[in-house]
Write a structure and sequence with these properties.
- The chain is 42% helix and 23% strand.
- The protein has 288 residues and is an alpha+beta fold.
- The strands form two sheets. A seven-stranded antiparallel beta sheet has the order 1-2-3-10-5-8-11, with helices on one face.
- The radius of gyration is 24 Å and the shape is elongated.
- It starts with a strand and ends in a 5-residue tail after the last helix.
- InterPro entries: AraC-bd, Homeodomain-like_sf, HTH-like, HTH_AraC, HTH_AraC-typ_CS.
- Pfam families: AraC_binding, HTH_18.
- Keywords: DNA-binding, Transcription, Transcription regulation.
Length: 288
Amino acid sequence: MEQLVRRTESVDDGRRFLFALGEHDLPLQVESIGYNPHQEPILRPKGYPCFHWLQTLEGEGEFELSGRQFTLPPGCGSLLFPGVPHTYAPKDKQWATIYLTFGGSLAESILASLDIRHTEWFHWNEDAPVTAQLLAMIEQAQHDEDRSGLNASAQLYQFITTLKKYGQTGSRSSLFQHLEKLDPLLQWLELHYGDPEIGLNDMAALLGLSPRYLNALFRQAFGITTYAYLIRLRIRKAKELMSRGGRKSIKEIAELSGYRDPSHFIATFGRTEGMTPDQFRKLQGIVF
């Protein structure tokens, strides 16, 4: 892979770090990152060629996108997809921004796997680490000779996943907020997953929620229903038990994992893991 060449530019007392793209893209690759204390008006009728993250540090900006206008106050950011026409300008006399542009051979698919599929506006709570993480990237770019671009790529992935965890779109809660609501139940399940009597109504009652709302929370947090989460937890615990070796039979493993019927356990294990419990044991080098 060709090395990335980083160049530093001053932007009215701000800082801008550019990474020239090599012949072979990294899966995620930073093109530029920086801080602009005096953000100027920008008109891009053909959009930007890379993914473009822009957020406000101080003041407020105004966006126009597809005929609609948006404001960008502190604690908010926009992720613009490549080629989306847009304009933005300061709403106040001074608008300080930080920004990140990126691409890479898997950039779009990584974003899609996090359910980010189009240009999106994010906001977050004051204690969320979104801004701190981006500022840390700028700080590292200033002091680190990242000639391969690998450090920046790793930090970019961490930033995107942080945005997924703490970012809110519209009136929807963040993934972090969903996990906070579910945490008492998740901790309880870690201790009681082996009880075969656990049902959806029991889990909903533990949080004082309706079964329907609990399923909605699990779908938003994990993309699966509450009971599907319990099944995956039981299978994971069964794998942990089998990985430890010992002389426990499949029947004992099934019972400890919350299954009364070993055949049900074997069928569920095969459906989720694509192999039988005995085949899994052999992969771990365990011969029973």
